[in-house]
Design goal:
The protein is of the alpha+beta class. Helices cover about 15% and strands about 20% of the residues. It has one helix at about 40-49, and strands at about 1-5, 15-20. The chain has a two-stranded antiparallel ribbon. The longest helix has 8 residues, at about 40-49. The chain is elongated and about 35 Å long.
Length: about 50
């Protein structure tokens, strides 16, 4: 699957699109397919440091 990975604090140049393995749920867990996700101010501020 594709994932946007944060490689450090900073601007958009710190975001990298990577192929990552699909997670395998453990006992008592489930795997959900999320077709879209939003980004809020807390996530933006965390990335900016």
């Amino acid at each position: 699957m594709k994932a946007v990975v944060t490689t450090g604090v900073g601007s958009y140049d710190k975001l990298v699109i990577k192929d990552v393995p699909i997670p395998q749920p453990g006992r008592g867990e489930i795997l959900l397919k999320v077709p879209a996700a939003g980004v809020n101010n807390t996530e933006i501020n965390t990335r900016l440091g």
